[in-house]
Amino acid sequence: LYNYTPKTASCDTTDSYDSLWDAVIYGSYEDVHTLIAQGVSVIDYETESALHAAAQKGDLAIAKLLIEHGA
Question: What is the pLDDT of residues 3-23, one digit of tens each?
Answer without folding.
Answer: 556 654 444 444 677 888 889
